[in-house]
Each structure stands twice: as C-alpha cells, then as structure tokens.
Amino acid sequence: LGFERSHGWLDEETILYSASKGQASQLFSYHVPTGKKVLLYTLEGAISEVSISPEKEYILTSSANGDDMEFRMLSSAGKQVFSFDVQAMEISFSWNEFQEGLLLVESFDEDWLFTSYIVNIPEEQIQKLRLPQPFAQWASESQLLYMDLDQETSESSASLKLYDMEEETVVPILDQVLTFYANQDVLMTVTDAQDENDKIKYIFSDWQGKRLNEWKVPAIGSSADWNSYPFSLIPNKQSLVTFIPDAGPETDEDIDSYNLVEYNWVTGDMTTLKENVAAAPIVCSPDGRNCLY
User: Fold this and answer.
1) What is the mean pLDDT of the chain?
2) Which residue, 220, 219, 226, is CA-closest to 254?
3) Which of 10, 84, 211, 230 could bridge to 14 as Cys pair (CB 3.0-4.6 Å)?
4) 3-state helix, strand, coil in the chain (%, to 5)
5) DSSP readout, 199-234?
C-alpha cells in the first residue's frame, strides 16, 4: 500500500491511511477487497493526529505549528469543512457518539495545564469549557465522564464522575476505576477484582444504569502499575476484542505472549481468535469481520 500509518475504518471494507510525499502528508482511502486507493487530502507538513468520527461523516487532522496545534475537519470524501487553531504542546480529543459532528478537544501546555473546548463541526463553532479533569468522554449529548484523579498521589485508580454541562453538576458513578470507555451503546469500566488480587474486572453497563455483565481477566503486575490492554469495541456485535495474558499471575511485566479474544458483554461468552500474539493497538471494522492490528 505504501502507507505509513493507518487511522481506522471508513466503512466495513475501507480503511484510512496516511503517507508522506516530500514535505507533504497525504490521506488515502483504501478499499481492502479490490485494492483501490483514492487520494482524499494533501497537507503541507507533518500530520500529528488523524481520527474518524463515529458515524464516519468527518475526519479530524491535527498538525503542530510552533506553539499552536492546527485542526482541520474534513468530510469523509476529503473536503475541508472547518478549521481552527489552539495553543497547545499536546492534545487529546473525544468524539461525541450521541451527536455526530460534536467533539471535545483538550489542549495541554508545557506545565501540563489543560484547556477544554467543545467543537461543533456543522455549525463551525468552538467554545471553551471548564472541566475539573482532562481526558473526559461523552455520556450523552451534553454530559461528560471523567476520572477524578488525585494529582498529589501515585494512585492509578480514581472515582468516575459525570459532569452535566447544562446543569453544571457533578455526580459520582463508580469508585476505584482504573480506566473506562464510553460509547452510545455501553459504558465499560475497568477496576480491581477485589476478591482476586491477580485479576482485573471489566464492568459493562447500559445508560440506564443496568449492569450487563462482568468479566475478570489476569493482570500483569499490580493494579498501580497496570496499563489497559489494547482493545476495540464492536457495538454491532455487542462485543469487545482485546488481549489477555497467556500466562499465570506469577509472570513478570515483560510478558510478550497474549491471546487475542472476543468477549460478548450480553451473553458473557468469550472466544479465542488467535493465540500467542503480541499486544498492540487494534481497530476493528464496524461489522467486526476485519481488524487492523
């Protein structure tokens, strides 16, 4: 293909990838069954980040320009529809899966102080938002989830809280959360398995507060040192594709052998897709039939 980085799926059969041409960066679509590629966009300079919106209508690109980060919002066909700059050394962002074209952008300065922005692509608007903590994710069209980490301690777990932008209220959701992921269909939280020190627990809940399922998997090292295993959620199949250690709890943290598995958060069934593989970022197509790994 000649690509340098893949950035996810534009549909069930087409991926988005980037490549360099001289000093420029180019974005291409690539149709996997036919091998056809199409140039979508050319940007002078390097691209820092590329992300596809939940409904595949938009493509976000960011690139560093001195002390600023330049954002360009493209249609899925590669037409620029909106652009803006923010002052930032680093950025994070989260698409709103409940309202296409809305996203949260967070910029960080050299002292790791952050500023949050709500970006509305169809209306070409950007406005600042005061959030208690960075790295928030959407829980509805107007609510955000975040981990209330204590910067004064080394604790890796924290209380998960819900911030309502309209009411300006904060509600605690769950304590001792290691990480979480939210989309339109499910809230996934990861916690210590309190009764089993060598395991972590995935908790799947719907947006009415009903707990759908729990899944315990082996943990490498202590929860304080635990990093989330790469994963991809497939809402159409109500499943999670991820890696679990192919070893017992006595294994050290340098393990490089995992099993790639698929877990259905409704039935509780787990299927092993591939054994003895390295854990690495993975993104599955919307129908779950193909994964980039």
Assistant:
1) 90
2) 220
3) 10
4) 0, 55, 40
5) EEEEEEE-TTS-EEEEEEEE-SS-GGG--PPPEEEE
